[in-house]
Structure formats: structure tokens, C-alpha cells
């Protein structure tokens, strides 16, 4: 095995046991960890070509384009952390932080407002919606999602938490502020926005369930998602990533409901990121499946 | 980091046309083969860089003439205010150059660098009239002027594949003084602007309002000043590192001639 990076070490070790042709990459990674314990399997990227793509754990050695000896290139992906851990941390923050502002914990607003409660119904409604949203995300992380990758680089957790926690604090500060101004069109605006929010939350959940059902437990198979009996999933006819579409809808609803510019900015930031992800996913689908439905757009029907 | 960025602007040796090849980030110097812009793009970039070199020369000459006429170096800003605004703002085109790919630099990095310059010109110096007579303004204007004249001529010559060693040397050496000089000028100017921003509530919005939003420009400026602390040393030492690489590389080449 040869090591990529600054030092190119050609490494042949007599201690490295013979590898069977039917061994999987995952097994080879485990063997490698035995002799190099600091590089646990999740940190290893093995490739046939230094500039090529990483080999998958499920790949079998004899099915790869190698002769009687295989040269594998190793790259250290850096410290890894599990997706589940990252999701749980990044979603618990906003849940908790928003409540600090909602209950007007001391040192946020002026002392005379400590532990007071807003007199606007929409503020209470917003707290329920925001909290519900993150509780839903936490439960989905624990019970619904089936992840393709086990881990991501450690530094992502700092980046992601800063994003989620930072925006949550920023939004919560204004919505729960003693000088908060309720929406211009009053109860009508709030009701409409709430309807949009609820519909999109249900939609988003429906898509998550549909995606889960595409993939058996413990597997990493990928299939084209199709609409099911659930009307919310019919959006699959028009977009590749309706979960993102619904997520956008939820936040737009929340922004209209609270009439708060920071919420709109958070929605915009999320939209940009989700569009990038949706386009990537759409491209992967097109590459992997010849018969991918041509009508579908990545995230917005007919447009984007 | 306005001074930093453009003074810095090291990394790429030749081939970095237009506003490209700025400090920091990704690409290994000279390690990768670059296609370079096509002939039409090259012609455009040469014209662009020549015009910018000329523009900053106009600013330089304007400063000297104003100094000679006034007999003092105070309040020279007014003499070159218009060309400074015009040519520094014109640098926004460099973001476009990166975006369309005729210059091999990162759009993000170039945007950051140009925007920080434009911010200082418009959102600080132009907006807070009281600082225009400050000496700190002259400090960064001089730093920028010298830097830009060298940088744009560097690009011009690079595009024409005829780069005099003097220009390369100047670009990778003068920053040692110009960069701290520019940063000092910028920081002092922002600092001088603070009381006037507070007093006038400039660019600030407070609660309550119907969009439930607030912005304190005074606090924002302080955050900007603080951001220089991590950014300045990084850029500066990157430049020093680049200097060692580029200038020693040239030395080796000379040995073989």
C-alpha cells in the first residue's frame, strides 16, 4: 500500500497478511487498522489511482480492475465523527437556544423583561412551530433516516453548529423581543403562514418516510424514488428532492408568520445550500440511472 | 484586509492576468499547467490592466501635485477623491474575470479582497465626511497606490510574457512595508469614523420596526476591526512564504543562464 500526501511512502510490510481475492474493501481497511491503529476504517480512503475516486466498502477485491497484485493508495481523511452525532448536536442547540429567548432568560433583554411573556399570540405560535420543527428533526435522525455514509470530517460539526445555533439565536432574539411587531395583516397572515408551515412539515416528513422505505435497514442501496399513495409524495413527479422543496416551504411559512427579516435571511441561506445539494443529487441520479424521469427538476418544479 | 489582499496578491507567478492571482488559497504556485485565456480575452485583459495601471498613476501624480501645491501632506484626499473612487470601484470587474474564467483565481477570494477595498472607500471614507481630512486616509491611499501600480503592471507584463525582474521583485518585496502601512491606515480611519457613526446613527436601524430587524453599524465596524487580528498575520506570512518561493526560484533560473 502506498500513502498519499506529503510523504509518499512505499510501504510493503511482511507483517501484512495475504489478502484473499474475495475480501471486501471494508475487510482490508480493518486489516490496515490493525497495523496502524491511529487510522480507524472511517478515516481511510483507499483508491486504485491516487487521483481516482475512493473505493466503496462493499467492493470486492477480485471484482476490481487489478491483477495478481493490487496497489492501493491510502489517504487519511482526518478525524471523523458520525452523522448521527452531528445531526443530534446541531439540532438540539436551536431547540434549547430558542427557548432561552422565548422565556426571556436574564441578560438577553433588559432586566425589567426577565422571565416575562409576550402578549402576542403569534410569538407563542412561533415557539411551538420552531420547537416542533427541531423535535421532528431529532426524531427523524434517531428513527427514520438511513445514512449512506457513517461519518463526516470532525470540523464539520463546528461549522454546522455555528450555522444552526447562530441563526437560531439571531431569529429567536427578534421574535421574542419585547419590542417585537406582529405581522402587518394580522391573524389572516398568521393563519395562512401556519397552514403553509404545517403542510410543508407533513410533506417533508412524508418524503423522509418514502426515502426510508426505498432502502432496507443496514443497506446502502440507491433507487429512484417514486410517488406513493401519500399525496405529499406526488411532488416526486416534478422534483428530485421534494424534501428540500418542502423544507423551503416550511421556512417561508415561518418567515411570513413572524414577519421577521432574519428568518427570511435564514431561509435564503438554507435555500442556497439546499439547491446546491439538490443539484448534486439530481446529477448523481442522472448519472446512475439511464431511465431517470426527464420531467423532474432538482428542487423547484419546472424552474431549478 | 484591503491593503493586505492587494498588496499581498502573491502566489501565482506568471500567467495570472487581470485582477487574478491574489493572495492566499489553494493553488500551488506554478505546479499546475494553466490553459490561460484565449487571444481575445488576453487582449481585453491587457487593456484592462494597462488602464488600471494608468489610473493609479493618475492618482499617484495627483497626490504629488497636490502636495507640492499645498505645501503640506494633510487633506490630500480631496485632490484624488474622484479617480480613487472610479478606479478602485472599477476593480469589481476582477470578480467578473474570475467568474467567467479568464483569470485563474478564486471568485470568493477575489470578491473578499475587492469588496473590502470598496467598503473602505464608500462605506467608511465617503460616508463619514469627517474622516476625509484624517492623515490615516493618506496612509492607506499611498499604500494602495504603490501596490496597485506595481500589481497591474505585473499583470500586464505577465500577459505579454515579458516580465522584468524588477517588477516581480517589487511586487514580492514592497509588500513587507506597504502591507502594514495600508492596514494601519485602514484601521485608524475606521477608528476615527466610529464616534461620528455613533452620533449620526449611520446605516443603523433599531427596534421596533415592521421587519423585526436591527443593525448597529458602529458595532459592525468594531467587528470589522477585530477581524483584522486573525486575518492580517495569516495573509502577511503567506506572502513572506510566497516571496521566498518565487524569488529563490528565479535565482535558480538565473544560475543556469
UniProtKB/TrEMBL annotation, chain A:
Residues 18-76 form the TECR-like N-terminal domain. GO terms for molecular function: very-long-chain enoyl-CoA reductase activity. GO terms for cellular component: endoplasmic reticulum membrane. Pathway: Lipid metabolism; fatty acid biosynthesis. The chain crosses the membrane at residues 81-103, 162-180, 192-211, 252-277. Keywords: Endoplasmic reticulum, Fatty acid biosynthesis, Fatty acid metabolism, Lipid biosynthesis, Lipid metabolism, Membrane, NADP, Oxidoreductase, Transmembrane, Transmembrane helix. InterPro entries: 3-oxo-5_a-steroid_4-DH_C, SRD5A/TECR, TECR-like_N, Ubiquitin-like_domsf. Its main location: endoplasmic reticulum. It is found in: Endoplasmic reticulum membrane. One of its GO terms (biological process) is very long-chain fatty acid biosynthetic process. The keyword Oxidoreductase applies. It is a multi-pass membrane protein. It is an enzyme of class 1 (oxidoreductase). SUPFAM superfamilies: Ubiquitin-like (SSF54236). Residues 151-304 form the 3-oxo-5-alpha-steroid 4-dehydrogenase C-terminal domain. It comes from the Eukaryota. The keyword Lipid biosynthesis applies. Pfam families: Steroid_dh, TECR_N. Its EC number is 1.3.1.93. Belongs to the steroid 5-alpha reductase family. This is Trans-2,3-enoyl-CoA reductase-like. It comes from Pipistrellus kuhlii (Kuhl's pipistrelle). The lineage of its organism: Eukaryota, Metazoa, Chordata, Craniata, Vertebrata.
UniProtKB/TrEMBL annotation, chain B:
It is found in: Endoplasmic reticulum membrane; Membrane. Pfam families: PTPLA. The chain crosses the membrane at residues 46-68, 89-112, 172-197, 217-237. Keywords: Endoplasmic reticulum, Fatty acid biosynthesis, Fatty acid metabolism, Lipid biosynthesis, Lipid metabolism, Lyase, Membrane, Transmembrane, Transmembrane helix. One of its GO terms (biological process) is sphingolipid biosynthetic process. Signal peptide: none annotated. It is an enzyme of class 4 (lyase). It is a multi-pass membrane protein. It catalyses: a very-long-chain (3R)-3-hydroxyacyl-CoA = a very-long-chain (2E)-enoyl-CoA + H2O; (3R)-hydroxyhexadecanoyl-CoA = (2E)-hexadecenoyl-CoA + H2O. Pathway: Lipid metabolism; fatty acid biosynthesis. GO terms for molecular function: very-long-chain (3R)-3-hydroxyacyl-CoA dehydratase activity. Residues 13-23 have a biased composition (Gly residues). Its EC number is 4.2.1.134. One of its GO terms (cellular component) is endoplasmic reticulum membrane. Belongs to the very long-chain fatty acids dehydratase HACD family. Catalyzes the third of the four reactions of the long-chain fatty acids elongation cycle. This endoplasmic reticulum-bound enzymatic process, allows the addition of two carbons to the chain of long- and very long-chain fatty acids/VLCFAs per cycle. This enzyme catalyzes the dehydration of the 3-hydroxyacyl-CoA intermediate into trans-2,3-enoyl-CoA, within each cycle of fatty acid elongation. Thereby, it participates to the production of VLCFAs of different chain lengths that are involved in multiple biological processes as precursors of membrane lipids and lipid mediators. This is Very-long-chain (3R)-3-hydroxyacyl-CoA dehydratase. It comes from Pipistrellus kuhlii.
